Amino acid sequence: MAMRFLLEDSQTHDHSHNHKQQIWLILIIVILIALLGFSVFFFFCRRKLNRNRSHNGGLKAEKLKLRYFKLEELEKATENFIADCLLGSGAFGNVYKGSFEGEGTLAIKRAHVESYQTTEEFRNEVRLLSTVNHPNLVALVGFSEESGPKGAKILVYEYVPHGSLREYIIGRGGRNFTWRQRVNIAIGAAKGIAHLHDGIKPCIIHRDIKPSNILIGERFEAKVSDFGLVKMGPIGDQSHVSSQVKGTPGYLDPAYCTSFHLSPFSDVYSFGVILLQLVSGRPAVDTTRNHIIDWQPANLDQTCAEVAVEKCRQGRVSRGATSKKSSIQLFYPNHAIWK
């Protein structure tokens, strides 16, 4: 009997011990699952935070008064960046026309992979362009920055409907300007450039002023665009900043090319070339002729300018407008502009 009691007591003890082991095992498993769940939760929270930081480019879009666009939105607006939506292409990237439900039509500039050496370079450009606000400068609406295989750095601008000044200067599609329109475009472009130089501190030098970067708005007003080469100008008593030569041949300031000294006057030189093009209808660089700055109507006082313009415009020039010497002189910059 005593033996049976001891045996039952031993079995009860073993059962109790096994039960405790099971409880501890279950408890350990629960703790491990909880730790694993917390780790997964922490991982995804951190990933989402990093993604948001990446999306905002270290920037607060609302603070900059810009909109952040998701890549999916831009793909939808451009039908996945199809060729039919392509407005133009350059060394910096491609520009697409995108249609949005809320904003309407916008211009989407998708940079090439090599356009920015670092992510911070792109972010600095966004910060800089967010400060630019003038009716004669194309406005930045927002941006997008995505990492990963589909990564992209994209700037979204207002859409300007009538193309670029280049199309009008070379007469593509029979497009031509009246003298009044040319004067207004010249004045508008000058105001936009002047705002970059004098309306922002420190000043901004565009470095690529040319007809294809002057867009024509709804009311045929000029809007300076493409800020891919902009550089901060001199500060205080400085007259220039040292810079590697960048820009478009034919519009580059010779002094900048030889000295590597960049100043607002480099943009002024480029603008002077455009003024000559507005009068002559000639390209800045022509293999059959000298550079356009060497082009001079022989007798402005005897309306030779009218003959030159009429030849380029195929008789579409207003006689009353071209007979006004003051109109011609507005377009013909003094050669001191290049000194």
Please describe what this structure looks like.
- The chain has ten helices and twelve strands.
- Residues 52-57, 299-305 and 307-339 have low confidence and may be disordered.
- It is α+β, with helices and mostly antiparallel strands.
- The protein has helices at residues 2-55, 71-77, 119-129, 165-169, 179-198, 254-259, 264-280, 304-313, 319-322, 325-331, and strands spanning 67-68, 86-89, 93-100, 104-111, 140-146, 152-158, 204-205, 214-216, 222-224, 231-232, 241-242, 261-262.
- The longest helix has 54 residues, at 2-55.
- It folds into two domains: 67-158, Phosphorylase Kinase, domain 1; 165-338, Transferase(Phosphotransferase), domain 1, CATH 1.10.510.10.
- The radius of gyration is 32 Å and the shape is elongated.
- β2 (86-89) and β3 form a beta hairpin.
- The N and C termini lie far apart (123 Å).
- Strands 1-5-6-4-3-2 form a six-stranded mixed sheet. A two-stranded antiparallel ribbon has the order 7-10. Strands 8-9 form a two-stranded antiparallel sheet.
- Helices cover 42% and strands 15% of the residues.
- It catalyses: L-seryl-[protein] + ATP = O-phospho-L-seryl-[protein] + ADP + H(+); L-threonyl-[protein] + ATP = O-phospho-L-threonyl-[protein] + ADP + H(+).
- It is a single-pass membrane protein.
- Residues 81-339 form the Protein kinase domain.
- GO terms for molecular function: ATP binding; protein serine/threonine kinase activity.
- One of its GO terms (cellular component) is plasma membrane.
